Amino acid sequence: MILPLSLGERSYDIVVRRGVLHQASEFLQLNRKALIVTDDGVPAEYAQTVAAQCATPVLVTLPQGETTKSMACFELLCRTMLEHGFTRTDCVVAVGGGVIGDLAGFAAASFMRGIDFYNLPTTLLSQVDSSIGGKVAIDLDGVKNIVGAFYQPKKVLIDPDTLASLDPRHLAAGMAEAVKMSATFDKDLFETIERADDPYTIVEDIIIGSLKLKRMVVEQDEKEQGLRKVLNFGHTVGHAVETLFGDQYFHGECVALGMLPMCNYEVRRRLIPLFKRLGLPTVYPECNKTQLMMVAAHDKKADGFDITVVFVPKIGEYEMRKIHFDQLETYLEGDLWK
């Protein structure tokens, strides 16, 4: 399936097809220098398959994990392109999850003020969400995605076959993002996931349904001035959990925890059993609640002493609430703690 994303001169296609990794040269312009960026948590054959289809591949394999989204790794990619004589006519290809997509995309956006970028996501989380929309970034001083840009890829290739290499926790982390989007925008997709005996058996349908929602949002609000902020459901508190406990939880698991306080009781009553079936956490780790709130206060969505959060009063609906930091702690009361 090919899903066109319409953004005028920045428009591009999202190709969802099993085996498309082996057909990359049919969809991408690879007859040039291509910086292929991956990490050591991704099966090496994925990047090698793409490299074999490039005229002049330059392969960089980085350590897996959020710490790779750093200024040091960003500099490494830029220096590598400089040393290999990359020009504005060359390209960057990300083969991996959200960390690699964010980092490689930011390097592409920055080198020579922007060269072509292709995203080939290999995790469920990146396939349903982060691979499209053009948000690229790195972390700085423990603050996630604080240095970045809006820079759209030229094309996105999604091969569901790559999910076979993921362990159950990584699959669950990706499913959290699909739940996030359906809970805010699409009651029918949420109930499809909720009713499935095993949601992972319909993962391709969930990927396509999620991409259609994300595409709709990005086409209306490319640079997060309004509607796109809804995609931050679960992220305000989730990012704080990730900052404090990133060595214990994956990003999607943190987002799942971040959703639970930001909805009413009836919604939470449906999310918790769904999360348990998917293999996602439903209670917060032991920590100082005040410390958690202080970390959330540094969230990039903060405005002075106020912060805008996304609240779900009913499946398929959302509210944008501007609250004082002191109020945030009241959302974390109840049965969410160990």
Could you explain how this protein is built, in words?
The chain has 338 residues and is an alpha/beta fold. It folds into 2 domains: 2-162, Rossmann fold, CATH 3.40.50; 168-332, Dehydroquinate synthase-like, alpha domain, CATH 1.20.1090. 41% of the residues lie in helices and 20% in strands. The strands form 3 sheets. The protein has a 7-stranded mixed sheet, sandwiched between helices. The mean pLDDT is 91.
Ends distance = 44 Å
CATH class call of the largest domain: Mainly Alpha
CATH H-level superfamily of the largest domain: Dehydroquinate synthase-like - alpha domain
Structural class by helix and strand composition: alpha/beta
Query: How many distinct domains?
Result: 2
Ranges where pLDDT stays below 50 over 5 or more residues in a row are: none
Quick tags:
three-stranded antiparallel β-sheet; Dehydroquinate synthase-like, alpha domain; 2 domains; Rossmann fold; 13 helices; globular; alpha/beta; 338 residues
Question: What is the fold's blueprint, element by element?
Answer:
Layout: E1 2-5, E2 12-16, H1 24-27, E3 33-39, H2 44-51, E4 56-62, H3 71-83, E5 91-96, H4 98-110, E6 116-121, H5 124-130, E7 135-140, E8 143-150, E9 155-158, H6 168-185, H7 187-195, H8 203-220, H9 235-245, H10 251-259, H11 265-278, H12 289-297, E10 302-303, E11 306-311, E12 319-324, H13 325-328
Parallel strand pairs: 2-9, 3-4, 3-5, 5-6, 6-9
Antiparallel strand pairs: 1-2, 7-8, 10-11, 11-12
Helix pairs in contact: 3-4, 5-6, 5-8, 6-7, 6-8, 6-10, 9-10, 9-12
